[in-house]
Each structure stands twice: as C-alpha cells, then as structure tokens.
Amino acid sequence: MKVVLNLAKKEQKALFVIFGGTGDLAQRKLYPALFDLYKRGYLKKHFAVIGTARRPWSNGYYRDVVRSSIDGMVNSQSQIDEFASHFYYQSHNVNDVDHYETLRVLADKLDQDYGLEGNRLYYLAMSPSFFGTICEHLKSQGLTKTTGYNRVIIEKPFGHDYASAKKLNDEISKYFPEEATFRIDHYLGKEMIQNIMALRFGNSILSAIWNNKMISNIQVTLSESLGVEERGGYYDTAGALRDMVQNHILQIVALLVMDRPDSYCAKDVRKRKVETFKALKIYSPKEVAQNFVRGQYGAGKDMVAYREESMIAPDSMTETFVAGKLEVDNCDMAGVPIYIRTGKRLATKATRIDIVFKKDDDSLFGGQGLADNILTINVEPDTGIDFTLNTKKIGQEFATRQTNIGYRLTKEQVAKVPEAYERLILNALQGNSVNFTHWDELEYSWKFVDAIRNAWDQEDLPVDYFPNYACGTMGPQASDELLAKAGHHWIF
Ligand code: BG6
C-alpha cells in the first residue's frame, strides 16, 4: 500500500477560530491538544487562536482558562506564557451578523501580526443547530476570503438520524466543500484504531486469513464504567445507539472488514469504507428483534440508576447499552457475524476488538478440543495486541494448552502516543482527511442505525422493561444469549 501523504514534521501556520471556546470540550480536549502540538513543534510562532462564545470574557481571563486547562503539562512558566499569548477572546452571538464583522477584523489583524498566510481553521464545538448559520455568516461576512485555506472542523453529533444529518450536511456544504469539511470521530485518532490497517495490510500472515474461511466471528466492545455524568440532557435524547454505534463502532467495523485500499489516502480509504457500509445488511424490524439487544442500567453499589441521574426522566426508555450482530455482505467477510457491544456503567472501561478464528481439527490430539485462536487488539487501556495459540502441554503427554503471545506498548511508548485530538487537529491542519468521516460514510451509517431505532420505536415496551442490568456488570443477560444462539460467547 503506497503512502502518499507527506507527514514530515513542519511548522503549521494557521488561525484557529473556536466556536464554543468557553466550553467543556475546548477546555478538556482542544487546548491541551493545541499545547501538545506546540510542545512538539507543529505550532510555533505562526499561530493564533480566537475563542468565541456568548460570555463577555476578556483576553486575560480567557488566557487564564487556557492556562488552567493545560496545568500539569507545562515545563516552564515562560513556555506557558508564550503559548497563552497566542489566545484572543471575542464575545460572539452566532446569529448576529455584525459580530462576524468584528471577528473578521480581528482575524485579519492576527493574520498580519502572526504571519498566518490566510490559513484558517474554524472549529465548531457547539450545538449542531448553529452549524449552518455559522458557516453561512463566515462566508457572507468575508472571513473565508483569504489567500490561504479555510477549513471547518465539525464535532459530533452530526444529526440524530439520516434526515437531520442530511439537512445539516446540505447547510454546511453550501459554504464549505467536502474536502474542506473535517467531521471528527475521535476514535479514528486513537493509536490502536489506526493500527488496524497496519496490522491487516502489513502482514501477509494476517491478510491471508482475514476472511470467512478462517474467521469465526469478530467482537467489538466499547465498554464504559462511567454513567452519563453531566450530559443527561443530551444523552437522554440520543442513547447508546446514536452516541456510540452510529459513529465510533461502525467506523471500527469498517476498518476491520473493508477490502485493502489502493493507497493510504483519504480518497482510497473512503472508497473501501463506503463499499463496506453499502454491504452492511439493513435489518427489518423482525431482524432487529433477533439481532439487537438494548439495556438500561439500574442502581449498583454507591451508584444510582440511570433514571435517577440528573436531567433524566424517571420513566426514560433511553438505552444506555446496545449489543448487536452485524452482517456484511462483501466477498471475504460474508457470513462472519460481527458482534458489537457498548454501554455505560459496565464492569470496566475498555475498548477492545477480538477476532476469533475457526478451530482446527483436534483429531490428532484425541479429540480433546482446541482453544480458540484469538487476535485481540487492546485499544485502551493496556494498549497492545494479544494472540492466542495452541501449543504442546509441557511434559510427556501429547496434548495442547492455550498460550498467549502478547505485545504491549511500553510506558515510554505510551507517553509518546499523541492524544486523539492532537493527531486529528494536526491532520486537519495538513489537509489530510483520511481519519475523518466523509458524508457518504455517514449517510449509510445513519440509514443502518435508523432501521434499528425505528424498529425499537415501534415496539411498545412496558416501562418496567428497564432497568435490565445492574451497574458494574457487562449488560443484560440477553447480550450473552445473542451470541449463545450461534454457539459463540463474548471473549471479554
Ligand atoms: C463520546 C460519547 O463520543 O465518546 C461519550 O459521546 C463517550 O458518551 C465517549 O463517553 C467515549 O470516548 P472514550 O475516548 O473515552 O472511549
């Protein structure tokens, strides 16, 4: 696979305009990511950040907020002072056209002062209901009339079903072409998720067995131990299916089952992913009932039930857990069940992928039964790979035992791994969209998810159907039964 991108380290020159600059995402993820880029030399003298939001903050106050968001990552006072001096605050009402004029004047000034060559990255870290308006005014008020590039980074959720996603996309694409639109899925910025393609297409021993002749089933688990925390308002309208399956899980599935792309560039990778999404079987309501399980957590030790969390209706029917069996009808993977599972308040926080291979003939060993060969990709925590093999039991007897070959990133390597947001922001600065979600992928993933959601909405479940799993477990029993029906079991 030819690598066509030149990702050589090089100082990036750009103005960041962050809509939602006072928000949680900006403070938890974006400012630390920018600081990491600064420490690693991707951002040096030629960058500036305008944070915008409604609150009337001063530059000084804003810089203090930025400073405290990177507390603990800093080597020296002069380093943090120099970094924070690139940040400017502009109080902004996204509906007020005049405010864009003020923003343009500031943007042009910073462009001159910092030598930014007209490169602009607009980061929309706020409610999607404003995306269309912001993009429209950025264009109409001349912010995008520069000699450099103008790109927009969009945070999730990108719609709540196909129709709303399409509407949103139509609004944005009137002002920013697809190649200038970077839709974030932060899982695509994770080291081990990016490792899937390297593993699959960099090892002939794996590519030769990555098919329905050799693979019994694939399991993708995104398990979280936390509950909904402060995000009840959003989560209760979304649920686990929209929050985790439509984006992160389906993107991982695409990387796991797509055919080999012609090159590692956005166009070729996307082509393969879209083919995979098109081959994903869309279920009828009856098939949804057979292949999908939903759950909602009840109380556990020192933990309240979902329905008792803040901003959640006491009779909420929103799912905090989903497990499902997917089928992809492409030649190599047709017939291989792909089991997916995600939930809040599960036993542990872990993201992992288990590829379970078909068992060999055990007649040579007196029909003792052989253990599964499993390739596990540990995304987080404990980043690494495990491969289980059958080897001879030590001693006189000719029998087998399961042996694990494990690879773990060392502490030093883990420290060097860029955080997902750092990696993705750098990709956007470099104009590299290979790790972003294209509209075509979204279109199919929403259609797949809508079929499940619609089937669930038609079911008239009694209110006491939930809760159906306790905090600290791995979800409802029906999730185990889903695999048991096919003679499988969750490896994790
Ligand atoms: C987000 C979801 O996209 O991913 C959250 O909205 C979830 O509900 C989060 O907690 C999980 O991300 P990570 O990187 O912590 O596994």
How would you portray this structure in words?
- The protein has 492 residues and is an alpha/beta fold.
- It has two domains: 2-155, Rossmann fold; 188-484, Dihydrodipicolinate Reductase, domain 2 (2-Layer Sandwich).
- Helices cover 37% and strands 19% of the residues.
- It has helices at 24-39, 59-69, 77-84, 97-114, 131-140, 162-173, 191-201, 204-207, 232-257, 266-279, 285-291, 411-416, 420-429, 439-458, 477-484; strands spanning 14-19, 47-53, 87-91, 120-124, 150-154, 181-183, 215-223, 292-295, 297-298, 321-326, 338-343, 350-357, 374-380, 384-392, 400-408, 469-470.
- An eight-stranded mixed beta sheet has the order 8-10-11-7-12-13-14-15, with helices on both faces. A six-stranded parallel beta sheet has the order 3-2-1-4-5-6. A two-stranded parallel ribbon has the order 9-16.
- Helix 1 crosses helix 13 (420-429) and helix 11 (285-291) crosses helix 14.
- The two termini are 32 Å apart.
- The model has no long low-confidence stretch (mean pLDDT 95).
- The structure holds 6-O-phosphono-beta-D-glucopyranose.
- 6-O-phosphono-beta-D-glucopyranose (BG6) is lined by residues 186, 224, 243, 351.
- Residues 17-195 form the Glucose-6-phosphate dehydrogenase NAD-binding domain.
- It comes from Ligilactobacillus murinus.
- It is an enzyme of class 1 (oxidoreductase).
- Belongs to the glucose-6-phosphate dehydrogenase family.
- Substrate binds at residues 186, 190, 224, 243, 344, 349.
